[in-house]
UniProtKB/TrEMBL annotation:
Coiled coil: none annotated. It comes from Rhodococcoides corynebacterioides. Belongs to the glycosyltransferase 2 family. The lineage of its organism: Bacteria, Bacillati, Actinomycetota, Actinomycetes, Mycobacteriales. This is Glycosyltransferase family 2 protein. InterPro entries: Glyco_trans_2-like, Nucleotide-diphossugar_trans. Pathway: Cell wall biogenesis; cell wall polysaccharide biosynthesis. It comes from the Bacteria.
């Protein structure tokens, strides 16, 4: 047989590959499948869960591969269902992770085993990058095994088979035999059986969907392990993060509740709590424990997100990093909720190191997606939100800044229209500030230099191209200054729309502390403004005694801020503007 991929109606096997940000590895998988097509008629379907990297471009270099956009990040199970629907008359479906490589002869060996009487599905031997056999075989979750796993974890790997869900016996990986289930990196299913079993359960999104599907397959026949069929699985194809770790644990509980009685599922959940509690010295286990104990947090776990059915003029994502912002967040989210509920924009609140009710408040607002990370780091929270966000462009909004829906839509539209970065205009709210603070901001407002950059408004938007220039947000205080420095004047703009209102410190002492913090943050990034030029512009703005007084107050307070910055007292947040 000449190498080349077949159509669905003329293939022995349809391979379904689910991708998400898989450009770095999917090419190796497709190349290995291309080699297999010399011996088995293969139809290959790649279902992409809204990747923003070069996944589509890599797949396009393989003629005959059917590329299917999932219409959003729909989850693993939903994407498998979409790919399986493209199998046509193929008698078998091979589901593969994108970070796998099929060894020579693997597909043929799996297909031969699938044709044995009573066999409904087959799985290969998985190896890691070093060639070592992975412990991919599993037993159905049982309370005793879960209890032992909770007590000893990965220790005592050679304990009795009844005391562990993972099969670790070397003999089990050297001979062909019937199994209960296996990790879902690679499985071949008889197409007729797949139709009888029904679709993969899309409620799981990611993790435990294969446990559930294998359970249904076992009711229809035997599942066979085929050691002579080998797939190298590099792992981490779905990425790793705290939300995904939480989802992995929660979906085990969801599986127990779906297939067992209330008492069994309650005991199982208690064992999971015990396991996380025993390991709670580690921050990620403490975070998972909080999620397992509080069902209201389950709504904020990664879930299927589909693009709106029509390309609305304002579609995009708003990212709000929040650290202990319960006092101000409700006002920020109120105008955004309707945009989120209608699917016009995606709104993600990335809670980082919160010890107050920020996360619970965000969850109470309809349409809002909530992420939680342990570290009190704004840029880490923004990177975590970027890892789960679906849409471009993205507006990054401080949690204490109120922006109108019109401003959100106008700024996102401007970025889609060609500029790489944009923000709305801003005005200072000095109503509750002391007289010297009001005079300081009156002078500052007369310096055009301060209104031409992306910083100062507490929000800015980036398109996909502009964000690619940034990469990940660096660990700095002045993220807006960093972003501003990436673009020339012609690549960024201030959009003519509703201004955001920036609440200012109420007292001189608080203002000096804020200026000190800003100066220390700005010192870590390239200078974007020339202080001497700004002072020169300020001097030229003097038109009488009032503006002269404003300029004098500005210079005095700015000088005090520079003196305070040399003391390096760490990060300070102004609480006076949050009253």
């Amino acid at each position: 047989m000449s190498p080349g991929f077949a159509s669905a109606d003329h293939a022995d096997v349809t391979a379904v590959v689910v991708t998400y940000q898989s450009g770095a590895g999917v090419g190796d998988l497709l190349e290995s499948l291309h080699r297999e097509s010399r011996f088995v008629a293969l139809h290959v379907v790649v279902v992409d869960n809204d990747s923003t990297d070069d996944t589509a471009a890599v797949v396009a270099t393989f003629p005959g591969v059917e590329f299917v956009p999932a219409g959003g990040n729909t989850g693993y199970a939903a994407a498998v269902n979409l790919g399986t629907a493209r199998a046509g008359a193929s008698p078998a479906v091979l589901v593969l992770n994108p970070d796998a490589v099929v060894a020579p002869g693997c597909v043929g060996a799996l297909l031969a085993a699938l044709r044995e009487p009573g066999v409904v599905a087959v799985v290969p031997s998985l190896t890691d990058a070093t060639g070592a056999v992975s412990h991919s075989l599993r037993r159905e979750p049982r309370l005793v095994a879960t209890a032992v796993d909770a007590a000893v974890g990965h220790y005592l790997p050679h304990r009795p088979r009844w005391s562990s869900e993972t099969v670790r016996d070397p003999l089990a990986y050297s001979i062909s035999h019937d199994i209960e289930w296996a990790t879902g990196a690679a499985v071949m299913i008889d197409a007729g059986v797949a139709r009888a079993a029904g679709p993969w359960d899309e409620n799981f999104f990611l993790y435990s969907e294969e446990t559930d599907y294998f359970r249904r397959l076992r009711r229809l026949g035997r599942i066979r392990f085929v050691p002579e069929a080998v797939v190298t699985h590099l792992g981490a194809g779905s990425g790793t993060s705290q939300p995904l770790q939480d989802l992995l644990t929660v979906n085990k509980i969801r599986y127990a509740e779906k297939h067992h009685g209330r008492l069994w599922a309650t005991v199982f959940r208690g064992l999971i709590v015990t396991a996380e509690l025993a390991r709670s010295s580690a921050p990620h286990h403490r975070a998972t424990l909080r999620v397992v104990l509080d069902r209201s947090r389950w709504r904020g776990l990664p879930r299927a997100r589909r693009r709106p059915p029509t390309a609305d003029a304002g579609s995009g994502t708003v990212v709000i990093p929040a650290h202990d912002e319960a006092a101000v967040l409700a006002a920020t989210l109120a105008p955004l909720s309707r945009l989120a509920r209608t699917g016009t924009v995606e709104v993600i609140v990335a809670c980082n190191g919160c010890t107050d009710g920020t996360a619970d408040l965000a969850r109470s607002v309809p349409g809002i997606t909530v992420l939680e990370t342990d570290a009190a780091s704004k840029t880490d929270a923004m990177n975590a939100a970027d890892a789960t966000a679906m849409f471009w462009p993205r507006l990054y909004l401080d949690a204490d800044i109120v922006v109108t829906p019109r401003a959100v839509l106008d700024v996102l539209a401007a970025v889609r229209g060609g500029v790489l970065a944009a923000r709305p205009p801003f005005v200072y709210d000095t109503r509750h500030a002391s007289l010297p603070v009001r005079r300081f901001y009156a002078a500052r407002s007369r310096v055009p230099e301060f209104s031409r950059h992306l910083w100062g408004a507490g929000c800015y938007a980036l398109g996909e191209t502009g964000h690619r220039r940034l990469g990940r947000f660096p660990d700095v205080v002045a993220d807006d200054v960093v972003v501003d420095g990436l673009f020339t004047a012609g690549e960024k703009t201030v959009v003519d729309t509703d201004p955001v209102v920036v609440a200012v410190p109420r007292t001189v002492r608080a203002l000096v502390a804020v200026l000190s913090r800003s100066l220390r943050g700005n010192a870590a990034v390239p200078r974007t403004t020339d202080a001497r030029s700004s002072l020169s512009t300020l001097a030229r703005s003097v038109r009488g005694p009032v503006s002269a007084l404003d300029a004098a107050v500005y210079v005095a307070i700015a000088t005090a801020g520079r003196v305070a910055a040399r003391r390096d007292r760490g990060w300070v947040r102004d609480e006076t503007s949050r009253g």
